[in-house]
Amino acid sequence: MAEQEPTPEQLAAIAAANEESNSGVNYKAPAQKSLDEILQLDKDDESLRKYKEALLGNASSCSDADAPNIQVTRLTLMCETAPNALTLDLQGDLEAFKKQSFVLKEGVEYKIKISFKVNKEIVSGLKYLQLTFRKGMRIDKSDYMVGSYGPRPDQEYEFITPLEEAPKGMLARGTYNIKSKFTDDDKHDHLSWEWNLTIKKDWKD
Length: 205
Description:
Largest sheet: 5 strands, antiparallel
Strand content: 35-45%
Order of helices and strands: HHHEEEEEEEEEE
Low-confidence stretches: none
Structural class: alpha+beta
Distance between the termini: 13 Å
Helix content: 10-25%
Number of strands: 10
């Protein structure tokens, strides 16, 4: 039997429910300072110097002058019951993702992991934004505060979203278009990409 497609009214109701459950990030950005400026602040205070060393490590920066400060490398859909790894290489052809789709079994629990590098300067207030569309209508918006990070070009950072449950039921099955953005307090667009998620009754249905 063919699966029933949701009506525009049903999609609008889903979007309204998701809008009520999401609260925006209320955060005021501090004044931006370079790595050198931060290292020079209170340099005679031994305890503060040790704290900054612990926070920033060796405070090394990338030697490649053309490298971006923020380099988003991978998106991973973390699901313990998935038969295969669900990973997007965000350093490849981003346009290709629009023609592909992750398959997710309805009702399973999952998290999204974003892997990234900070190459040169400290960045404050990193955010991961995600808009979800179904049949061209936006039905959900997620806004995650990732945090502030110092340069660590030789090692990746990871941000993992809270545990979520995939939608389930006949009306929930189908393909969702997702628009993702990695940004910060200064509204720099470090990376934007689109990808697709298909909810099915089973992994190989």
